[in-house]
Each structure stands twice: as structure tokens, then as C-alpha cells.
Specification:
The protein is of the alpha/beta class. Helices cover 44% and strands 17% of the residues. The chain has 12 helices and 11 strands.
Length: 345
């Protein structure tokens, strides 16, 4: 069992003793130290803050996160795709029909779909999904955005007060992102997703920018990105590897499936970056990858490896083959390019 740092206590012997007693009674030895820290934080906050607004914010945040984890935990083994897009898209619009078809075909392949729960593209995602294969993360707004009527299981609707907790769950509980044309909210969610991947705060994932044939939404967006962001040095050209623009549903699904064809998941451990794979890659391919992606290593080479001690202790996908490397923790666009190279025959 990991011990809590002595410095992280309330500082009142009687209160710290009560916290320890409560944690012991819960009987969760593996997470005991974390539960102790959470309770200690709550008590310290109560002692240090007299602002009711601060306490309400923390209280509501913890409640929203707790409930979200409860809803998603039974489905953690199923890959999920988040669908972002305009709440104002009409049922007759091409992007609405595209999102509906996308959700239908994804869920037929075993994926689950997560939407923002509102109208427009979000509604289309829930409408197209097979029964029981979708979630809705609705946001409570002053003008009362109500969940759309196409969510079959009401226990898969989560109503959030805060955008930041909702966005956290969007990222934490999904494995791929699909962005359809939309307004400020769609752009915000898209840019945040790309920022999180670019900075390593989110695992690499497929991000598809989807639009029906005839639309120029993402083409004009790309013009801005190339001219203003890449052209003026605000992002690197390699960062364009973080996403892919598609014009058809089948192309989007293929891109998502291909991303996880051989690549399984990523893990960081004591300076090493570990890529878990669904199958081993040939030595010849590994040599080519070392040559092509040497620039993203700080030292050494990309090599096959057994599970690390921490992975063994956690029982983390022990049967899967692995590649390990000293990644520079900076060039995530190149890392995504490397994952796609792993997936190619």
C-alpha cells in the first residue's frame, strides 16, 4: 500500500485520526491513500475557505464526476466515439443525415456513441445509434437545453452544471473524436481536444473532421489554420497530423478503425513511453521506424519490451506485445504519425 506523504495532513491530530479511521472502515486497501487525501482535501478546504461559492463549486464538481464515473464504469471495455457538431443543424441538413448514418454504422460495428445530448448534430448521433449504445452529456443552460428525445436509456443521460466537468468526461471516457460543422461550441471542443493531444494531456486518438460532399466548412478552416497558425509559427506543420478531414461516413469509420488496428494503448512509466500493440510488428518494420522517427527520441531507440514492473503490478494488458522508447514528450503530432505507421502493413 502506498503511504500518504506526512506533509499532507489536516494538522489536527484528532481530525487526522478520524479520517484514518473512516478510510480503514471503507476497506479499500489499494486506494486507501487516495481516499485519505480526498478526505483531507475536503476538510482542509472547509477549514481554509469561508466562501460558500468556493465550497459549492467543489461540491458540485465532485458530485458530477462521481456520478459520471458510476455511469461509464461498466462500459470502460467498449470503445466510444464522441460526436461534436452544431445544435442548430436542421433535421433536413446534410450534416444531420451524415451524423445519423455515422452513429448507426459505428454502433453496428460494436462502438458506442457519446453526444452532447442536445438538438442538431447531437440529436442525429443519438438517433442513429443502436439501442443502448449511446450516451448523452447534456449541459444545463439558462435557456434550458433539454436532452433530445432519441436517448433510449435514461440512465445514460448525464446533466452537467459545468462545462469543464462535461468536457473532462468527453475526453476521459472516449477513444475517438468526430467533429461536424458547428459554431463556437464545436470549435471550442475541437481546439481543446487538439490542444490536449498536442500537449500530451490526452492519449493519442483519431480525430476526424467530418462534412458532407459539397461543404467547404473544414476547407476554409484549414485555410485559416495553414495561413495563420502554421504560416506564422503558432503551431508546427507536424501538428496537422493530429486530425484528418473526411467527406464520407465510411472514410471516417475506416480512419478510426485503422488507428486501433495494431496500436492498442499508451502508457508512461519512469521516463519511458510504452506503446501496447494488438500484435507484434516484424523486425524489419521496427528498423524502418527507428530510422524514420529517430527525431522524436531523446536517447536510445524504439525497441520491443515485456511489461514494466508497474504494468505487472497493475495487471495492465500483460499479454500484449509492447514497444518502449524515450519519447521527447513534445512532438505529439509525430507520435500520432508513428502510430499510423505502426498500423500500416
Amino acid at each position: 500500500m502506498k503511504k500518504t506523504s506526512k506533509e499532507y495532513e489536516v494538522g489536527d491530530e484528532s481530525i487526522d485520526s478520524l479520517i484514518n479511521e473512516l478510510v480503514k472502515k471503507l476497506g479499500f486497501a489499494e486506494t486507501e491513500y487516495l481516499l485519505r487525501e480526498i478526505l483531507t482535501t475536503a476538510v482542509k478546504l472547509g477549514k481554509e475557505s469561508s466562501d460558500k461559492g468556493d465550497l459549492k463549486l467543489v461540491n458540485n464538481t465532485l458530485k458530477e464526476l462521481r456520478y459520471s464515473f458510476k455511469i461509464f464504469s461498466p462500459y470502460r471495455g467498449v470503445k466510444k466515439v464522441i460526436i461534436f457538431g452544431s445544435a442548430r443543424s436542421k433535421k433536413t441538413s446534410a450534416e444531420y443525415k451524415m451524423a445519423e448514418e455515422f452513429a448507426k454504422k459505428l454502433t453496428e460495428k460494436g462502438y458506442m456513441v457519446v453526444t452532447g445530448g442536445g438538438p442538431g448534430v447531437m440529436e442525429a448521433g443519438n438517433k442513429g445509434a443502436k439501442e443502448g449504445k449511446d450516451f448523452a452529456l447534456n449541459i444545463r443552460l439558462p435557456f434550458e437545453q433539454k436532452p433530445n428525445p432519441y436517448i433510449d436509456e435514461k440512465d445514460k443521460i448525464i446533466n452537467f452544471k459545468y462545462f469543464f466537468t462535461r468536457k473532462l468526461i468527453f475526453v476521459k471516457e472516449t477513444d475517438a473524436t468526430a467533429l461536424f460543422p458547428g459554431g463556437f461550441g464545436t470549435q471550442d471542443e475541437g481546439f481543446e481536444m487538439l490542444t490536449l493531444i498536442q500537449t500530451g494531456k490526452s492519449r493519442p486518438r483519431p480525430v476526424v473532421l467530418m462534412e458532407p460532399k459539397g461543404s467547404t466548412y473544414w476547407a476554409q478552416w484549414m485555410h485559416f489554420v495553414n495561413k495563420q497558425l502554421v504560416g506564422k509559427g503558432y503551431i508546427r506543420k507536424e501538428d496537422l497530423n493530429l486530425f484528418h478531414i473526411v467527406k464520407t461516413v465510411n472514410e471516417a469509420i475506416k480512419y478510426i478503425e485503422d488507428f486501433y488496428r495494431i496500436y492498442h494503448s499508451i502508457r508512461y512509466d519512469s521516463g519511458l513511453t510504452i506503446l501496447r500493440l494488438n500484435k507484434e510488428i516484424p523486425d524489419k518494420k521496427l528498423k524502418l521506424m527507428n530510422k524514420k522517427f529517430k527525431d522524436i527520441l531523446t536517447i536510445g531507440e524504439i525497441k520491443a519490451s515485456p511489461p514494466t514492473n508497474k504494468e505487472i503490478q497493475g495487471g495492465e494488458y500483460l499479454s500484449l506485445p509492447r514497444l518502449v522508447m524515450n519519447f521527447n514528450m513534445r512532438d505529439y503530432g509525430r507520435l500520432c504519425d508513428m502510430i499510423r505507421a505502426i498500423n500500416r502493413d
